Amino acid sequence: MAYSVNQTSNSKLPLVPGIQTLMTYDGYRKFFGDCNDSSDIFSHQAALFNKCQANQWINTLKSSGFYDWIKPLVEMRDKFSQRREFTKDNCVTLMQFYSLLENVFRNTLLYPYISAYRTINKDCGRYRSFIEPHETKMPFQELQFNSTGPNLLTYTEIDPQRTIIYALTCSIFYHHDLAKLQNHYVESTRRQYSN
């Protein structure tokens, strides 16, 4: 499957330095293609997205006409992270979900010729612990994952622009919620020691 998107028609994306380039297929592949391992990828993402607020990204995509693509991710995020129900477990579940999806989306873009990188095995112990109890809240179908076996979900989207936006959104949400979780932990610790 060959992708041909090499430019984005929108210039309203100043949120992250170099985002216009990153939102192209060639730019995305160049940025992440040089990463040797997960720690390289995480470092690249953290450098780009650690100051990016999730709501800023959502608003940027709304003004750029891409919001409908990420709406399922936003709605799921809202279900899990409402202020009155914010818990460490909810936040960790979301972060695991974002990490899993971002990995599938990134690998789909970097290695389109390896079909196994598009598939999630729900029986895998690593995923089962957070997918199984929350599967009905997770928007797999809306994000173009189809059941291809009893416990397999395969990403079937072929539009690279959409896949890039999915990957960037998951990465931004992950880093935003990581900061949120760290702040929550700091506040909890501070309250514990001030009592």
Explained architecture:
With 195 residues, the chain is mainly alpha-helical. The chain has a single domain, classed as Up-down Bundle (Methane Monooxygenase Hydroxylase, Chain G, domain 1). It is 59% helix and 6% strand. It has eight helices and three strands. The chain has helices at 19-22, 25-33, 38-49, 54-64, 67-80, 88-110, 125-131, 160-194; strands at residues 119-121, 145-149, 152-155. The chain has a three-stranded antiparallel beta sheet, with no helix packed on it. Strand 2 (145-149) and strand 3 form a beta hairpin. Helix 4 (54-64) runs antiparallel to helix 5 (67-80) and helix 6 packs antiparallel against helix 8 (160-194).
How are the SSEs ordered, and which strands pair?
Layout: H1 19-22, H2 25-33, H3 38-49, H4 54-64, H5 67-80, H6 88-110, E1 119-121, H7 125-131, E2 145-149, E3 152-155, H8 160-194
Antiparallel strand pairs: 1-3, 2-3
In short:
This protein is mainly α and 195 residues long.
Question: Can you give keywords for this protein?
Answer:
three-stranded antiparallel β-sheet, Methane Monooxygenase Hydroxylase, Chain G, domain 1, about 60% helix, mainly alpha
- CATH class equals Mainly Alpha
Enumerate how many helices there are, as a single number: 8
One letter per element, helices H and strands E, the order comes to: HHHHHHEHEEH
| Quantity of strands, as a count | 3
What count of structural domains? 1
Largest sheet: 3 strands, antiparallel
CATH fold group: Methane Monooxygenase Hydroxylase, Chain G, domain 1
Radius of gyration from the CA trace? 17 Å
Strand content: 5-15%
